[in-house]
C-alpha cells in the first residue's frame, strides 16, 4: 500500500470508532478508511509502506524515518492526518487484540496525536518514537532507553524524559539515561529502572530540572554529567563511568 | 518536575528585551535577533550569548558572540524546522570559560512574523473541544499555561463557552482554580520581571481594583483572601449574577 493521510471525514470516522471501541472492545477496525478516497488521500510522492510487526519503538521509528522521507512531505510531525492513518495501518500492534479479540484502549493521545502540545506529543505510539529517533538521528541508539520498549508501552523512562524538551533533545542527557537504565548486554531495561524511588527516571528528571536552573545543560558533556550526578544513581550507573 | 528553587544569582532577562523576527529567504526559514538590550543588564561584557530555537524534540543553538560585542551567527537557518509554527526561543548568557553555569536566561520567546508586529499573541485562556466523559469542562494544566476544555459531546463548544449560564457559573470557578493553582499549589513568587503564563495571570488579576499587593508565597491565608477578592471582582466585571438571572428566568 502507498502512504496516505486521513482527511477530516476519515479522522472523524476513526475517532468515532475509538469512542465505540471503549464500550465494544471487539469492534472491527475500520481498515477500509486506509484507501477509501472519501476518507484518505495520498501523502506526498507515492511511497510504498509495508504492514509489518515491529516489536519495538526503535524498529518502528527507524522504518518510518526511512519510508516517510521518501514521500518528500514537509512538517511530517505536525501532519495529524498522516499519523492517524499510520495508527490505523499498524493498529493491530498499537492496540493488540487479546485471544478473545478484545482490544484495550490507552488514552486518546496514544492514537490521535497532539503535535502542538509539547507535553503530550510523545504519548502518540508512533509519532513519539519517530520524533525521538529523528532528534538523535546522528546516533539513534543513544536514545535506546526511550525506544527499546514494545510499541504499545510508554514506561516511566519515556514519560519522565520525553515530556521535557530540554531533556529529550539533549544528547548527553539522553545518552546518560540509556547508560543508566538500559542493560547493554540484553538490550532491556535494567531491573528497578521503572520505580519511583532514589535513582529512578522520575528522580533523574527532577534532579536535571534543578540543575537547569544553574547550568547550561546543552553545553555539558556526558562526562560532566557523570561528575555531578548524585550518589542515589550509583545503583544504575555503569562502573566504567567512575564515582562522582 | 514540580517546583524549582533558584538560589543562584542568575538574572532573568525580560522577554520584552529580546526580539526575534522570522525571515523567509526563498523558502528557507531564517531569523534575526535584536539582543542589544542585554547591554543594560549587569553582565560581564565578555560573557557569551547563545540563542536556542526549539520545538518538542527539535533544538538548534546559535552563538551570538559576547554581551559587549554581539556577533550573530552567520548561519541562522532554522533547518531543523519545516514550518515556523510553534517554534520558541531561549537566550542564555554564560561565562566565557569552561564553566557551564548560567548567568542570565530568557525562555519561551515567540517569533515575531514580519507581517505582524504584534508577535504571537495567544489568548490567556485558550478553549478547546475534547471528549470528557460526563464532565462538562476541565482545565488542562499539562501544557504551557491553562487550557479550558469543553466536552465536545455536550454541544458546540463555542456556543457553550459563550452561553450566559456557562459564563456566569464556570468562568469565576475557572479563574479561582487557576489562581489557586498558581498561588497556593505552585506558590508562584511573582517579582514582576517574568512574563511567563503564571505572571500573566497574576498581572491580569491585578488589573482589578482593591486587591492590594500580592502576599508572599508563605502567607497562605492572605493569598487565599487575595484570590477570593480577585474572583469576586472578576464576577462583578463579568456581570455573572445578572447573566445567571437571565438564564434562571422561569426557574423555581
Which sequence of strands runs across the widest sheet of chain A?
1-2
How many angstroms does the end-to-end distance of chain A come to?
Answer: 53 Å
- Arrangement of strands in the largest sheet of chain B: 1-8-7-4-5-6
Helix content of chain A: 40-55%
Helical segment tally of chain B? Answer: 5
The residue ranges of chain A in which pLDDT falls below 50 over 5 or more consecutive positions are none
Order of H and E elements of chain A: EHEHHHHHHHHEEHH
Order of helices and strands of chain B: EEEEEEEEEEEHHHHH
Helix content of chain B: 25-40%
Residues in β-strands, percent of chain B: 15-25%
Quaternary structure state of the chains depicted: heterodimer
What order do the helices and strands come in, and which of them pair?
The complex is a heterodimer of chains A (244) and B (252).
Chain A: E1 4-6, H1 8-23, E2 40-42, H2 57-71, H3 80-89, H4 91-94, H5 127-135, H6 144-147, H7 156-162, H8 165-168, H9 171-181, E3 182-183, E4 188-189, H10 201-214, H11 222-228
Antiparallel strand pairs in A: 1-2, 3-4
Helix pairs in contact in A: 1-3, 2-5, 7-10
Chain B: E1 11-12, E2 19-25, E3 28-34, E4 48-55, E5 58-66, E6 69-70, E7 88-94, E8 104-110, E9 127-130, E10 137-140, E11 147-151, H1 157-162, H2 164-185, H3 197-206, H4 220-238, H5 240-248
Parallel strand pairs in B: 1-8, 9-11
Antiparallel strand pairs in B: 2-3, 4-5, 4-7, 5-6, 7-8, 10-11
Amino acid at each position: 500500500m502507498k502512504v496516505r493521510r486521513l482527511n477530516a471525514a476519515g479522522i472523524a470516522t476513526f475517532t468515532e470508532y475509538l469512542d465505540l471501541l471503549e464500550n465494544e472492545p471487539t469492534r472491527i477496525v475500520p481498515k477500509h478508511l486506509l484507501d477509501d478516497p472519501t476518507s484518505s488521500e495520498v501523502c506526498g510522492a507515492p511511497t510504498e509502506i509495508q504492514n509489518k510487526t515491529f516489536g519495538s519503538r526503535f524498529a518502528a521509528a527507524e522504518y518510518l524515518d526511512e519510508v516517510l522521507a521518501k514521500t518528500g512531505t514537509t512538517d511530517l510531525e505536525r501532519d495529524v492526518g498522516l499519523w492517524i492513518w499510520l495508527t490505523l495501518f499498524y493498529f493491530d500492534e498499537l492496540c493488540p487484540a487479546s485471544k478473545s479479540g478484545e482490544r484495550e484502549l490507552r488514552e486518546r493521545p496514544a492514537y490521535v496525536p497532539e503535535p502542538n502540545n509539547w507535553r503530550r506529543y510523545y504519548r502518540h505510539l508512533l509519532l513519539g518514537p519517530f520524533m525521538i529517533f529523528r532528534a538523535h538521528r546522528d546516533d539513534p541508539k543513544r536514545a535506546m532507553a526511550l525506544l527499546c520498549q514494545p510499541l504499545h508501552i510508554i514506561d516511566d523512562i519515556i514519560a519522565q524524559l520525553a515530556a521535557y524538551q530540554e531533556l529529550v533533545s539533549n544528547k548527553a542527557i539522553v545518552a546518560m539515561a540509556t547508560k543508566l537504565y538500559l542493560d547493554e548486554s540484553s538490550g532491556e531495561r535494567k531491573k528497578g529502572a521503572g520505580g519511583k524511588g532514589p535513582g529512578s527516571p522520575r528522580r533523574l528528571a527532577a534532579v536535571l530540572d534543578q540543575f537547569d536552573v544553574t547550568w547550561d545543560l546543552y553545553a555539558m558533556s556526558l562526562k560532566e554529567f557523570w561528575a555531578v550526578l548524585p550518589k542515589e544513581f550509583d545503583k544504575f550507573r555503569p562502573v566504567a563511568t567512575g564515582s562522582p | 518536575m514540580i517546583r524549582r528553587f533558584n538560589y543562584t544569582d542568575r538574572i532573568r532577562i525580560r522577554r520584552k528585551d529580546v526580539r526575534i523576527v522570522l525571515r523567509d529567504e526563498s523558502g528557507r526559514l531564517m531569523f534575526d535577533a535584536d539582543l542589544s538590550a542585554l547591554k543594560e543588564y549587569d553582565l560581564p561584557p565578555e560573557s557569551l550569548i547563545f540563542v536556542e530555537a526549539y520545538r518538542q524534540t527539535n533544538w538548534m543553538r546559535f552563538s551570538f558572540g559576547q554581551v559587549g560585542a554581539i556577533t550573530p551567527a552567520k548561519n541562522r537557518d532554522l533547518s531543523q524546522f519545516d514550518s515556523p509554527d510553534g517554534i520558541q526561543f531561549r537566550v542564555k548568557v554564560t561565562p566565557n570559560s569552561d564553566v557551564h553555569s548560567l548567568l542570565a536566561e530568557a525562555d519561551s520567546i515567540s517569533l515575531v512574523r514580519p507581517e505582524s508586529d504584534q508577535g504571537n499573541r495567544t489568548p490567556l485562556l485558550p478553549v478547546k473541544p475534547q471528549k470528557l466523559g460526563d464532565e462538562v469542562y476541565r482545565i488542562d494544566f499539562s501544557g504551557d499555561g491553562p487550557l479550558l476544555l469543553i466536552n465536545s459531546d455536550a454541544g458546540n463548544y463555542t456556543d457553550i463557552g459563550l452561553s450566559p449560564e456557562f459564563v456566569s457559573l464556570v468562568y469565576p470557578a475557572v479563574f479561582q482554580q487557576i489562581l489557586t493553582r498558581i498561588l497556593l499549589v505552585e506558590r508562584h513568587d511573582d517579582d514582576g520581571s517574568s512574563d511567563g503564563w503564571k505572571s500573566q495571570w497574576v498581572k491580569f488579576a491585578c488589573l482589578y481594583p482593591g486587591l492590594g499587593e500580592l502576599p508572599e508565597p508563605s502567607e497562605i491565608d492572605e493569598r487565599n483572601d487575595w484570590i477570593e477578592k480577585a474572583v469576586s471582582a472578576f464576577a462583578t466585571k463579568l456581570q455573572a449574577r445578572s447573566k445567571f438571572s437571565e438564564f434562571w428566568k422561569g426557574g423555581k
